[in-house]
């Protein structure tokens, strides 16, 4: 059976995730515009710096920081951030593009790939239209970026019901 476009692009994001250098998760993101992939990114340390795999440890695990919190204490840039950055480095406009995000934990099990608040703000400001995420159930969750803007105009971002890390913290 032929995959839908959303399934197809999520499969590519899954392959991108395999390049991740984070101990906790493997996340990959791609941006598609006019049915063409224009950028990719995975979770990993900034260029030319040591990542968690090279260091043999996760600083956030060592400090017992829960998923979805205190991102400033992390060696990595998120997949979504790297995807946006890579497009900027190439001089590519993201306006009205779609981002696809795939995530799995260190055991290789699917997890919800919802963007964190920092990445959501970057996605809004980049002018993306949709964010298509894989879920731990193997389903696809589609967010319209304009809906985030409307929600945050009416409520605060902490009221957002699709927060990264909720499915991983015990």
From TrEMBL:
<feature type="binding site">
    <location>
        <position position="78"/>
    </location>
    <ligand>
        <name>Zn(2+)</name>
    </ligand>
</feature>
<feature type="domain" description="CMP/dCMP-type deaminase">
    <location>
        <begin position="4"/>
        <end position="146"/>
    </location>
</feature>
<dbReference type="Pfam" id="PF00383">
    <property type="entry name" value="dCMP_cyt_deam_1"/>
</dbReference>
<dbReference type="GO" id="GO:0004132">
    <property type="term" value="F:dCMP deaminase activity"/>
</dbReference>
<feature type="binding site">
    <location>
        <position position="119"/>
    </location>
    <ligand>
        <name>Zn(2+)</name>
    </ligand>
</feature>
<dbReference type="InterPro" id="IPR035105">
    <property type="entry name" value="Deoxycytidylate_deaminase_dom"/>
</dbReference>
<keyword id="KW-0862">Zinc</keyword>
<dbReference type="GO" id="GO:0005737">
    <property type="term" value="C:cytoplasm"/>
</dbReference>
<dbReference type="GO" id="GO:0008270">
    <property type="term" value="F:zinc ion binding"/>
</dbReference>
<dbReference type="GO" id="GO:0006220">
    <property type="term" value="P:pyrimidine nucleotide metabolic process"/>
</dbReference>
<dbReference type="InterPro" id="IPR015517">
    <property type="entry name" value="dCMP_deaminase-rel"/>
</dbReference>
<protein>
    <recommendedName>
        <fullName>CMP/dCMP-type deaminase domain-containing protein</fullName>
    </recommendedName>
</protein>
<dbReference type="InterPro" id="IPR016193">
    <property type="entry name" value="Cytidine_deaminase-like"/>
</dbReference>
<keyword id="KW-0479">Metal-binding</keyword>
<dbReference type="InterPro" id="IPR016473">
    <property type="entry name" value="dCMP_deaminase"/>
</dbReference>
<dbReference type="InterPro" id="IPR002125">
    <property type="entry name" value="CMP_dCMP_dom"/>
</dbReference>
<keyword id="KW-0378">Hydrolase</keyword>
<feature type="binding site">
    <location>
        <position position="116"/>
    </location>
    <ligand>
        <name>Zn(2+)</name>
    </ligand>
</feature>
<feature type="active site" description="Proton donor">
    <location>
        <position position="80"/>
    </location>
</feature>
